[in-house]
From TrEMBL:
Pfam families: SBP_bac_8. Keywords: Signal. Residues 1-23 form the signal peptide. InterPro entries: SBP. It comes from Stella humosa. Transmembrane segments: none annotated. The lineage of its organism: Bacteria, Pseudomonadati, Pseudomonadota, Alphaproteobacteria, Rhodospirillales. One of its GO terms (biological process) is thiamine transport. One of its GO terms (cellular component) is outer membrane-bounded periplasmic space. One of its GO terms (molecular function) is thiamine binding. This is Putative spermidine/putrescine transport system substrate-binding protein. It comes from the Bacteria. The keyword Signal applies.
Length: 350
């Protein structure tokens, strides 16, 4: 399956988002006890629905939470922007990069510690701006099928991003495409490995051109990537360490390494301006940031959570002081052109 064009993806997602949200919006406004949470499915859906934390939220606050799931950060924010004039969701959570783009559209309200007291317990790095907080995040990693490595007698990857360029991996790579947040991290990482940066992206694009003939697929989700790594079709991928850990828990024969310097991908959350249930939104966001919920996310999914009371983070929050800083404003301003270049000059090489 090749990557879907950005315009087609947005049209499909916006239509689905609006129909889903409109169907539930009337109920939210009628009872004022339902909080609509626009974010991913995946581990968030598993947390709230299968692992019972949605019920715990109701027990703690009297509100119920209804998930409005999407596959990727850009889809989440596209759905939020589409309902800007008449919001049908209350809380939005996505990757940091698309969230910042949504914030530029004026769709979120300022967050006040008086209304959401758990904000005061977050690490300073978590306060992105007046309208956004970072709930948790992940460090990027190289994921590999250890059974394939053993069969082929390959040396396990070193903690070095340049390992992605090893010639023996040709024909066994799965990398997220540049029209996704993680794909942008691949591009920026490779640019820096080869002497560039987000301000000089050419070396990264050149590296992708070299890798492209050996890429099996450019999957947009970790579930899709996991399918290729599980059956041995692929041997090496690039994704978050928490996703790699989740693959292993699901029985996929993978291990991962976290190269230095660290690349951290943050998850941002905020409350929609003119949300149908603003009080419920504040209650949910405060609960979502709590020590109890974030400790579970750290233990179960390996997230690096921002609540400083959490004691089981996979890496200390203080370690983020040493992470690679990214000029997110420049990335968001440049991403459309980078995607065009990727689709025009890299994808045809596969």
């Amino acid at each position: 399956m090749g990557p879907i064009s950005r315009s087609t993806l947005l049209r499909t997602v916006l239509g689905a988002a609006m129909s889903t949200a409109l169907a539930g919006g009337a109920a939210a406004q009628g009872t004022n006890k339902t909080v609509y949470f626009l974010t991913w499915g995946g581990t968030v859906q598993q947390t709230l629905e299968k692992e019972g934390w949605g019920k715990k939220f109701t027990e703690a606050t009297g509100y119920t939470v209804q998930l409005v799931p999407k596959a990727t950060g850009p889809e989440i924010i596209a759905a939020a922007v589409a309902q800007k004039d008449k919001p049908q969701v209350d809380v939005v959570q996505s990757d940091l990069l698309p969230f910042l783009a949504g914030n530029d559209q004026g769709i979120f309200v300022p967050l006040d510690e008086k209304d959401i007291p758990n904000i005061a317990k977050l690490a300073p790095v978590a306060r992105i701006n007046a309208n956004a907080i970072m709930t948790y995040g992940d460090v990027m990693s190289i994921i590999y099928n250890h059974e394939v490595f053993a069969q082929k007698k390959w040396a396990e990857p070193k903690a070095d991003w340049a390992e992605l360029m090893r010639p023996e991996f040709k024909g066994g790579l799965v990398l997220p495409p540049v029209n996704t947040t993680y794909g942008l991290y691949v591009l920026i990482t490779l640019a820096r490995v080869h002497g560039g940066s987000e301000h000089q992206i050419g070396p990264g694009m050149d590296a992708l051109k070299k890798l492209a003939p050996g890429v099996i697929e450019w999957p947009t989700t970790f579930a899709r990537m996991g399918q290729f790594l599980q059956d041995g079709t692929a041997s090496v991928g690039f994704y978050s360490s928490s996703s790699a850990a989740e693959m292993a828990k699901r029985g996929i024969p993978v291990k991962y390494v976290v190269p230095k310097p660290l690349f951290f991908t943050g998850t941002a959350a905020g409350i929609m301006k003119n949300a149908p249930n603003p009080e419920g939104a504040k209650a949910f966001l405060n609960w979502w940031l709590s020590k109890e919920v974030m400790s579970f996310r750290a233990e179960r999914y390996g997230n690096v959570t921002m609540n400083t009371e959490v004691t089981n983070n996979p890496i200390p929050v203080a370690a983020l002081n040493d992470m690679q800083r990214i000029d997110y404003a420049h990335v968001n301003a440049s991403r459309a052109e980078w995607i065009k270049t990727f689709e025009r000059e890299v994808l045809p090489l596969k």
